Amino acid sequence: MLAVPGLTPLLGISLLARTAITADAMALTMIVVVTLGLSYAAAGAVMAALTAGVALGGPLLGRMIDRRGLRLVLLITLVPQLVFWAVVPVLPYPALVAASFAAGLLMVPVQAVTRQAIAAMTTVAQRRAAFALESVVGELSYMVGPAVVILFATTVSPGVVAWGVGAAIVAGGAGIALLDPPLRGEGETIGTAPGRPRRREWLGARMIAVLTMGFGVAMLLNGVDLAIVATLREAGQAPWAAVVVAVCGVASVVGGLVYGALPRPLPTWLLLGLLGLVTIPAGLASGWPWLCAAVVGLGLLTAPTLSTITDAVSRLTPASVRGEATGLHSSAASAGFALGAPAVGMAIDVSAPAGGFAAAGLAGLLAALTGFLLWRSETVTAPPVADLTRT
């Protein structure tokens, strides 16, 4: 995959920008808690505003990319990001909440653009391996970004860290603009209003099934992070949470690489169902060494599940609306991340930390079952999806 022309620099720039984007929530949390001296609940409201903006802005920016092209959308998003992160350290709390929503609405669509470009730069046979590699990049960004923010926020200052996060986001978006990767394969064109298929022609039961599973896996993963912290805090081993999360991340990287090399894919619902099943018993672990062992299976299935969802979105979508579809995928994932922690937190509050793993696993199982039923409900066999703008 790295030999595909343009793919290596794309993944490198994507890693930089996505590492910063995954760290933005932690950077804002440090601003609220340390600089403003407010509670973690107040920081949660800022995170909710940012997430709501990302969820609403994803499809809109994707549709604009389909219609107007990549560079215009990057210009529209880079300028607000530059302004937002420059003034974050001095904003009063009410203004920070409102500005965070606007920043989320106009977040640089690095992940969606990377996925669109991969679909355009690879053949159908190569995409599963390419998206597995993209999931590995995503895992690396989640492992590095928040940890770097915590390290520098405690040794330098939250304001300087916020400036660094903003600079990395802007640098990543500018790098993608300079690289200008193709978003359409050979023979595919930018969708115009007359040539765009109607939404009901591609947003059918199977696409909704895939988006539902994307929502479910995001809810599961965010819930697992909270359950890990709660379990180790109860055992008096909270500092070891970073080690457990790192073990899970390394296992996910290994799982993604192995899955990308397999000759045949596995059904998305099956991977998500297995992920849910191995998550539930992780709550039985009593200390950090056992919890490290328990999350290995969870990690091995994470990147394969994420990559197969991304691959399914690309296969089910005509190229002329690929931006809007990837935006919907990002919105579904954002909604899952937003609901995962509160839902699992409620389960922990009414039971025990082990209940958090059970709630996260059951959310994954429910999403897998729903996705399976929706997929099977579309009984009419349709020809392979083609770009309706081709001549």
UniProtKB/TrEMBL annotation:
- From the record, give the transmembrane residue ranges: 27-57, 69-87, 93-110, 131-154, 160-179, 208-232, 238-262, 269-288, 354-375
Q: Which UniProt keywords apply?
A: Membrane, Transmembrane, Transmembrane helix
Identify the domain of life. Bacteria
Q: Which InterPro entries match?
A: MFS, MFS_trans_sf
Pfam families with a match to the protein in the record: MFS_1
PANTHER family with a match to the protein in the record: MAJOR FACILITATOR SUPERFAMILY (MFS) PROFILE DOMAIN-CONTAINING PROTEIN, PTHR23542
| Record protein name field | MFS transporter
Species of provenance:
Nonomuraea maheshkhaliensis
